[in-house]
Amino acid sequence: MDGIQGVQARIAEIQAAFTPPAAAPAAASGSTDASSGTDFASVLAGVSSTGATTSSYTPSPDRAQWATDVLNRLGLPVTSENLKALAAWAQAEGTNAGYNPLATTQSMPGATNFNSVGVKNYLSYADGVQATVTTLTNGHYANILAALQAGNSATAVGQAVANSPWGTGQGVLRVLQG
Predict the structure, then answer these.
(1) 135 partner at 20 to 30 Å CA-CA among 124, 129, 147, 177?
(2) Which of the 8 DSSP states describes residue 100?
């Protein structure tokens, strides 16, 4: 990529990967319109206000599916609190890294650096899910996994992230309180 135009093109490509097509149908449950390109802030607001469960948590198929797929791959419960926690975590990260909402630095074949810290752009959705799972199960994040296993408190997950070596610090808690 050459200069600003190359960076802007890559940003647009990554954003397009997380924005459903304009013709996408709304979720069957009547939740937020999928064609609006709902972001994690809206997902968080929807889950917070409705107490949504897995079946009604579909405002943005890509992002909602990502959270569900990570939890399923980890063998953890897919609850409204866990979905809210992952949505808040991704919002706190605030990254546009390719297929990497939690901004992990886990190496994967073909991954490129998104930033100077080493946050990765992954080549595929599957790579991003796998990298997140690999990172969370590397032995440094048992407290986060335990909070997700309980599945009953997004705040507990946020506190676990804050008390872990993950670089987000208090960010998840700030999003949940906002």
Answers:
(1) 177
(2) -
Q: Is-contact 1 10, C-beta < 8 A?
A: yes
Burial (0-12, 13-18, 19+ Cβ within 10 Å), 119: buried
Q: CB atoms < 10 A from the CB of 149, how many? A: 14
Closest CA to 70 of 131, 4, 160, 161: 131
Q: Residue 124 gets which letter from DSSP?
A: S
Burial of 147 from C-beta contacts in 10 A (0-12 / 13-18 / 19+): buried
How far apart CA 149 and CA 92 sit, in angstroms, is 21
Helix and strand totals (H; E) in the chain: 8, 2
- C-alpha 156: how far from its chain's center? 17
Which of 160, 155, 167, 157 shows the shortest CA–CA distance to 93?
A: 167
Q: Which of 19, 51, 48 is nearest to 36 (CA)?
A: 19
Predicted structure pTM score: 0.68
As a whole number, mean pLDDT of residues 151-158 equals: 98
Confidence check: pLDDT of 43 > 80 = no
Distance CA 94, CA 51 (A): 24
Tokens representing 98 are 């390719």
